[in-house]
Amino acid sequence: MEIRQLGSTELQVSSIGLGSVTFGREIDAQTSFSIIDHALDRGITLLDTAEVYSAGRAEEVLGQWLARGGNRQKVVLATKIAPPLGRERVLQIAEDSLRRLQTDVIDLYQLHAYDGNTPLEDTLDALNTLVEQGKVRYVGCSNFAAWQLCKALWLADVNNWAPMVSVQPNYNLAIRDIEAEMLPLCADQGIGVLSYSPLGAGFLTGKYTKTWTAPKGARFDVMPDHWEIYENDLSMRRMEGLRAVSAETGISMAQLALAWVIGQPGVTSVLIGCRSLSHVDQAFAAEEMGLTADLRARLNALG
Question: Residue 9 is inside which H or E element, if any?
């Protein structure tokens, strides 16, 4: 497991991070605890959650695990706040997250999405207050466009506020929008990249075909809104191309997709969502396998 510096911060994070979107929703607390323990045993140090995951239940489950002796000191803890992002709500939701997580400080507090209905100055001022109070160490964002991150960086600079140190985008072989502007921006400004959904919420595992139907219990069945992201011709061509490479090489689609994104230039850590210990091991196997230059080039060319 490679340990990497998150942007220009002091935070050191594992090249694979553990997301908690399944905690308290698809798996119970005890199963979640066993997955976290196993992930840490394998070398993962980054745990990511959000106040909206299972209406706060994911943070509560993670907080129960963190409360065990010594666990808080073992990890970099990240969480997110969803819009609306007015000043008072940002301050209150941060307090709620701290309580659910049973901790005094959040290492990385992220805006879950851009809020076009609230002045960004108000949101960033509130984040800066949390940093000044010692309740948050660093701030970041998720699902921002490059221009939105640029605006946030500029406002923080001119107002001497805590700057965004990371971005958390959707990034995988089917969804590669961040390559055009976001990744170059992050490289130029020293911003960490914590990508999520390396398997496209299951889209890149071979479960889906051109009929656009989701198997019972699959992520697209549990959360139908994922269809809006992946139900397009380009994503389908890339997925079918991955299927062809998998059939030719004998390497599973999931292993190829994971190895591709874990090794992509500019990505600091890849967040994985797990429902079993095998999902953790699958990601580690992909990192250990890596990709030859030729195979990476073939996957880059899909679509």
Answer: none
